[in-house]
Design goal:
single chain; alpha+beta; three-stranded antiparallel beta sheet; 16% strand; flat
């Protein structure tokens, strides 16, 4: 008995999510954030990346080099929290 995946893009999900996000990133009604590992991708105009490093839990496990590659890619209409005082930026 074979089982069909729920998603027709099973295995290519990340690639399809990124394609959808870029296609809809200019929509002012959407604030899109895609999470993943840094893979050297070029960001479309207006997009920005927030680098993350997990400091606890599974992400802090010994030898987990991926914890330094975590990224949040934000569409142009996202609010850049890095510039807010609460998050360590200037007022």
């Amino acid at each position: 008995m074979s089982v069909k995946p729920l998603c027709p893009y099973f295995g290519d999900t990340a690639r399809h999510v990124w394609a959808w996000a870029v296609e809809h990133g200019d929509n002012p009604l959407l604030r899109i954030v895609v999470a993943g590992y840094d893979d050297g991708r070029e960001l479309p105009d207006g997009w920005f990346a927030i680098e993350r490093t997990e400091h606890g839990g599974y992400g802090n496990a010994s030898g987990n080099a991926n914890r330094h590659r975590e990224r949040l890619w934000c569409s142009p209409h996202c609010i850049d929290v890095r510039a807010m005082p609460l998050f360590g930026g200037a007022a």
